[in-house]
Design brief:
Elements lengths: L9 H15 L13 E3 L13 H19 L3 E3 L3 E2 L4 H11 L8 H25 L10 E2 L3 H16 L3 E11 L4 E3 L4 E17 L2 E7 L8 E6 L13 E3 L6 E6 L11 E5 L4 H9 L26 H14 L5 E12 L7 E10 L5 H10 L1 E3 L4 H10 L4 E2 L1 E2 L9 E4 L5 E3 L25 E3 L3 E2 L1 H5 L2 H6 L16 E4 L3 H16 L6 E5 L2 E2 L16 H8 L2 H9 L7 E2 L2 H24 L13 H22 L3 H29 L2 H22 L4 H11 L21 H23 L8 E8 L1 H9 L1 H8 L1 E8 L5 E3 L2 E9 L1
Parallel strand pairs: 1-2, 3-4, 9-11, 15-23, 22-23, 24-25, 26-27
Antiparallel strand pairs: 5-6, 5-14, 7-8, 7-13, 9-12, 10-11, 14-16, 17-21, 18-19, 18-20, 26-29, 28-29
Helix pairs in contact: 1-19, 2-14, 8-9, 8-12, 9-12, 14-15, 14-17, 15-17, 16-17, 16-18, 16-20, 17-18, 17-22, 18-19, 20-21, 20-22
This protein binds zinc ion (2 copies).
One zinc ion binds next to loops.
Length: about 800
């Protein structure tokens, strides 16, 4: 066996293996292999922001540990990587950087700007993923903006349309006036803002009816007043009409049991559309629709003298006029919940628009059923998906009025308006660029393109099928459903949900068998990590100082799976010290194993059986934890065994035998050889580089530890009696060593005499370890006596005492 060198540069070693693994192609998925079971990771393609932060370190470490563990369990692991390029974040970034708005340049020019922009960030992020040592199969790398990917997304659009799961319709939607696009419920962030509520008089036959509203600007779009039918103050007004102040239209007063009689004045104005309650009432009572704002959030002519103003300015102007006219009877502050665009924080408006939708509400029951059936790590995250799905009111609005995204593959007949969808052989297609000339049913051959693009989640919510090889690989079902979909707790409502509805609609099958959730990374002070709070730690800073195996240990052991975990330098430093400890212990082992002969035969001694039995328990516990994605316990169990049981106790006690000769030495060598091999394997998914360096030096220069079999615990090597006896012997050794230390005697100096007193049962145990105790502590005269001692006590063993003569 080769001896590990004394000097080791962990950072250099990490980069060496990252390069070599790629050359050896050990992380490649074998598409032709039908003999091994498949384990497929639905790596979520990230939006490349250019910033690979500690949160990314946490979740990539999770996926990677899972992939590495499964590889060692004999699975053919598919661990792909894509980049989610499209969508608003990139467009907004380009608009900001180039100081333009999307409409200032032709769409294809804007698209190219976005493509270039995102490439620089992909490069940065890829470097970071590689630096973290992720065992990704880079031959699978893809970008959602590539024509090949667009084709698959458009194909799925056509298939869903065919199944009547996609439709074009006019429906209220969330609208961001800044981004000038529809956005889905999942993209609306909710926040509290200080607003005002105004009490305004409406004219009714009996005089005045007061209404409290936060948005008088919506008065021109008021189509009814609602009162609760059981509210005695107003019930006699039901069926009569009211005159709306400012805009002057007459609207019906209707009984609506959804009105809360205790809110405001108890009467509600119903507009098209101030919020979702309006949408519900308009649909329920079949009220007319008045469009108040345009796509930029500017008031339309129906707003009278306020037309042409942005909605917030219109509100200010209208309130000022109403105050002067005495139309504001009361004005109070109100803590309001507002919906904001997830990307630009602009308050969203609910508007009526003709858009493309996917039928998702009709799938809710199936989503809930599937969410219940699959496995969640941790289990309690399941409810997040169920609550989100059951809380949705509207179908998923798919179309976006943007540029950098997958085009909707449709044209419309100029004459009759009939939809002409793209044919399969025409994909991928951008109807804005490619014209068609075939004849419509009406005889016309002129078409106008659909100008819309799709929600970026429509790109990324098909990854489970696309990673598996759909639609081109006839064997794609072998990789489907994905074995695990890893996700952040904050994107369950988007990623996990959209994947689910999309695949259920297309294939009537769950997209993933399990979901692995990671929490957020907090600053060391327990608050959200952010540059402005001064608790931000950048990944280059961490990688530059400690490489990746140490921060991977922080990610693995920093907290329970799914919970938020703080970034603590101490955890990384602890990981670093652990690596040093492991290296030194293995270096010692490699020196004592230089002349190791695997064929030599020798009966294991007590402490050999003791550590072997403890190792079996460790393997059992670590394996169970790894199976359940409980990375924290897998790491802690293994590290504790290595650091304390193996390094502090076993190696110290076995040293004399290892430096000696004969059967005693051979027995210790066998134990050392097996124990170190298993220890390294248990740590391999967590600290792949360091364990690889040791493995290839000591055990097998040609085969990576990452593809060697995971250790199995062996019940026949579990020995409760040996553990009990060994524990007693180790406790006595430790106590005497502490005493030696307290007495100021060097650990290597001999002790002339030690006398141990113990009851008969303990005595027989200690007899079995007599030699180990004497050798480890260099005791010249060692006497074991039955009985009580007035001397020193052994911690944890009150009936064992000893006296010691230096
Ligand atoms: Zn926006
Ligand atoms: Zn036509």
């Amino acid at each position: 066996m080769k001896v590990l060198p004394k000097k080791i540069d962990f950072l250099e070693v990490e980069e060496k293996w990252q390069k070599q693994w790629e050359e050896e192609a050990i992380h490649r998925y074998d598409w032709g292999d039908t003999s091994r079971p498949v384990y497929s990771v639905d790596t979520p393609p990230p939006y490349p922001s250019g910033d690979f932060h500690m949160g990314n370190v946490l979740n990539w470490t999770y996926f990677d540990m899972r992939a590495r563990y499964k590889r060692m369990r004999g699975y053919n692991v598919l661990f792909p990587q894509g980049w989610d390029c499209h969508g608003l974040p990139t467009e907004v970034a380009v608009e900001k950087a180039k100081k333009i708005r999307k409409s200032d340049v032709p769409p294809d020019v804007f698209r190219r700007m976005c493509e270039e922009w995102i490439e620089q960030y992909i490069a940065k992020m890829k470097t970071a993923v590689q630096r973290l040592g992720c065992s990704i199969d880079w031959t699978t790398e893809y970008r959602t903006m590539q024509p090949e990917y667009l084709r698959k997304i458009q194909l799925s659009f056509l298939k869903l349309y065919e199944k009547d799961m996609i439709y074009k319709g006019e429906h209220p939607i969330n609208w961001c006036p800044r981004c000038e696009t529809a956005i889905a419920d999942a993209e609306v962030e909710h926040d509290h803002r200080q607003g005002k509520i105004y009490t305004i008089p409406f004219q009714v036959p009996s005089g005045e009816l007061l209404i409290a509203t936060t948005r008088p600007v919506y008065l021109p779009a008021c189509v009814a007043l609602g009162v609760h039918p059981a509210d005695k103050r107003y019930s006699k007004l039901i069926g009569r009409k009211a005159r709306v102040p400012v805009s002057g239209q007459m609207v019906p007063i209707i009984g609506n049991d959804e009105v809360d009689p205790t809110f405001g004045t108890g009467a509600m104005m119903i507009c098209t559309f101030g919020d979702k309650a309006d949408v519900v009432a308009v649909a329920r009572f079949n009220l007319p629709v008045v469009n108040l704002i345009d796509g930029k959030g500017v008031l339309l002519p129906v707003a009278g003298k306020y037309a042409g103003m942005r909605i917030q300015d219109g509100q200010k102007a209208m309130v000022k006029d109403m105050r002067e006219a005495g139309l504001i009877r009361e004005e109070r502050n109100l803590d309001q919940e507002v919906g904001l665009c997830w990307r630009c924080d602009t308050p969203i408006e609910v508007v009526n628009a003709r858009q493309w939708f996917m039928r998702t509400i009709s799938l809710t029951e199936k989503v809930v059923e599937t969410a219940r059936r699959i496995t969640w790590y941790p289990d309690w995250m399941r409810q997040r998906l169920i609550d989100w799905a059951t809380g949705l009111d509207w179908d998923w609005v798919l179309s976006r009025q943007r540029v950098f995204a997958t085009p909707v593959p449709a044209w419309y007949c100029k004459k009759c308006g009939k939809i002409r969808l793209a044919r399969l052989e025409e994909l991928p297609v951008d109807p804005k660029v490619t014209a068609i000339h075939d004849a419509c049913e009406c005889g016309s051959t002129e078409y106008v393109p659909d100008m819309d693009v799709m929600d970026t989640w429509f790109d990324s919510s098909l990854t489970c099928a696309i990673h598996a090889g759909w639609p081109d690989n006839p064997d794609w079902m072998r990789q489907f459903p994905a074995s695990v979909h890893p996700s952040g707790q904050d994107i369950i409502r988007t990623w996990a949900y959209y994947l689910m509805v999309r695949h259920l609609a297309l294939f009537d099958e769950t997209p993933y068998d399990s979901v692995l959730i990671n929490g957020m990374v907090l600053g060391a002070d327990g608050r959200k990590m952010s540059k402005s709070l001064g608790n931000f730690v950048s990944t280059p800073e961490v990688f530059g100082k400690y490489g990746c195996d140490a921060p991977r240990q922080w990610a693995a052991a920093g907290g329970g799976t799914g919970t938020d975990i703080p970034f603590r330098w101490e955890d990384v430093e602890y990981g670093w010290r652990f690596m040093r400890k492991l290296w030194n212990a293995c270096r010692f082992a490699s020196m004592r194993l230089e002349d190791y002969d695997p064929a030599a035969d020798a009966e294991p001694r007590l402490l050999d059986r003791w550590i072997t039995s403890k190792l079996q328990t460790t393997i059992m516990k670590a394996t169970e934890a790894m199976e359940n994605c409980d990375f924290m316990n897998a790491t802690e169990t293994t590290r504790n065994f290595i650091w304390h049981t193996f390094c502090d106790d076993y190696l110290e006690a076995a040293k004399t035998r290892l430096y000696g000769d004969g059967d005693d030495k051979v027995a210790a060598q066998h134990t050392l050889y097996d124990t170190v091999a298993s220890m390294l394997k248990l740590m391999a998914p967590i600290t792949p580089h360091l364990t690889e360096e040791i493995w290839r030096t000591m055990y097998d220069p040609d085969t990576s530890i990452n593809v060697s079999p995971w250790p199995q615990h062996d019940e026949t090597r579990m020995d409760a009696e040996a553990e009990k006896t060994g524990d007693t012997v180790i406790a006595v050794i430790s106590e005497i060593r502490r005493e030696k230390n307290r007495a100021g005697v060097s650990l290597n100096a001999p002790l002339s005499r030690v006398e141990v007193y113990a009851p008969a049962e303990q005595l027989s145990r200690l007899k079995q370890g007599e030699r180990d105790i004497m050798d480890t502590l260099k005791i010249e005269e060692f006497i074991l006596r039955e009985g009580q001692s007035g001397g020193l006590k052994v911690e944890g063993y009150p009936d064992i005492g000893f006296t010691l003569t230096v």
